[in-house]
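User:
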Amino acid sequence: MIQRHMADIIRREPVTMRGSTTVQEACQVMRKHRIGAIMVVNEQGEIEGIFTGRDVVYLLADGRSPAHTHLDMVMTRRPDHLPPEHSAMDALRLMHEGGYRHVPVVAHGKVVGIVSHGDFRHFEHARLDEETGVWERL
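Assistant: Predicted structure:
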């Protein structure tokens, strides 16, 4: 079985924004690029958080305005992330254990990519299911 690394999965430049960007602006960019997450970075390109469609649901459910709420007010701060040399299975395990669908890829403190649940191949999902089943039986 082929062991893929995070660097093998990254297909495009990650979309990044500053924390001062409004949720409405971020959602417009997410729709334009057909993505489910934006990396929130500081001036040096270091990750500060991640903003996902799930964050939008919470914002709207609380009755807050997307046009008047900044990303740094609703993003997930200090998200779990992996370096490019880690395996795809490491990312899938992290997603499974954390209950989320996106993992930032960070090298030397800078965001270099992002992988989502849909980026993984069937055999990787099957392997995770097999591993999970083994641990549940023990």
